[in-house]
Amino acid sequence: MKKLSWLFLLFLSYVSAFTQISGEAFEFNFEGYKMHGVLNQPENKSPKGMVLIVHGSGQTNAVAQNWYNKVRAKINESGYATYMWDKRGCGKSEGSFDYNQSVQNSAQEVIAAIKALKAAKIPGSESIGLWGISRAGWINPLVINAYKGIKFWISVSGVDDKENFGYLLNQNLRINGHPQDHIDLLVEEWTRGNEIAFHGGSYESYLEATTNLRKNPFLLRFNNNNEGSEAGYYQWQEQFMTQGWDSVTRLPMYIEDFEKALLGVDCPVLALFGEKDMNVDWRKTKALYERTLGTSTDLSIQSFPNTNHNLFLCKTGGFYEIQDENLGWNRSQEFLDAMGEWLDKLD
Predict the structure, then answer these.
(1) Are residues 276 and 262 in the same domain?
(2) Residue 89: which region, alpha, beta or left (left: phi > 0; alpha: psi -120 to 50)?
(3) pLDDT band for position 8 (cuts 50, 70, 90)
(4) Cβ(162)–Cβ(251) under 8 Å?
(5) Average pLDDT rounded to a whole number, residues 27-38
(6) 306 within a domain of the structure (yes/no)
């Protein structure tokens, strides 16, 4: 999920820095900036290939905080190297972080990483696969279409063709005990606010349309009590108006004709979902994958009960559940094993 606006910041990659795995630094250049990442190789054997870890939305400090440690360790156990890097302006990567980086530009960043790894002849880089979570579900199909020869794609909590913050808002307000009529009011205000912004409406019109939404405790917490500024609104609006818009659902689209992009995927795909994903409507994505990838390539789909958007074990899947209820940051072992078993079968 891409950050839709200055008002609705969503960071979808939780930190999981428990079991440390050692790695080797590797940097590449993208648009004049040095991007800093970490390589992990399987122990005591030459890698069968390499898996690039493509992040979801929001800022990263993935290398220093050892993100996706168990995921990378499982991939290494299956005989593949991994490479993960921090976004621009995050960790030791140069430049300034851009919440509004397009998914198309993110795809070019992934391709730059692939080319650098191959040019340096890093072990495993002769056979590249992609792993990606959430927003990466838009990025990785673009990479596969543009850079021929990607060997496989592991899609985790993938997205459908439209912005899905309305789903996140609806589900989390429900979990927080709001009555459905009030939820419907707030979701409609969110939708109307987007509509106004996309069609060039004024900041004053936007404020008038989102009166209740902007005062909602969940949204205030979500945005660190920051309602945004007039300048921020117009900066977001300028970028927002360059995107696609579906007039039927009244939702933004980050990739127009996304189904065509999925039909262009020509490598095996493993799609994994948490059944208590309250960030992305995983059932819609599953159906989308079945009618596209399911007809054009080798598609495997698995879902896991009692797991959230990041495939951590959970009770409700709410956005703040792990933090508020002091739950463990425990990734589903079934999820990890499913990746390992699928990778083993690729041999």
Answers:
(1) yes
(2) left
(3) very low
(4) yes
(5) 98
(6) yes
Final residue before a domain boundary, out of 253, 271, 289: 253
Full domain range(s) for residue 102: 24-161+256-345
Q: What is the rounded distance in angstroms from the CA atom of residue 59 to the CA atom of residue 76?
A: 25
The Cα–Cα gap between 34 and 26 comes to 10
Q: What is the pLDDT of residue 16?
A: 42
Q: Which of 226, 253, 280 is the last residue of a domain?
A: 253
> CB atoms < 10 A from the CB of 112, how many?
15
Q: Which helix (H) or strand (E) holds 264?
A: none
Q: Considering only CA atoms, which of 153, 157, 161, 160 is closest in space to residue 300?
A: 153
* pLDDT tens digits along 207-239: 999 999 999 999 999 988 887 899 999 988 998
pTM comes to: 0.92
Q: What total number of domains does the chain contain?
A: 2
Residues 99 and 50 in one domain: yes
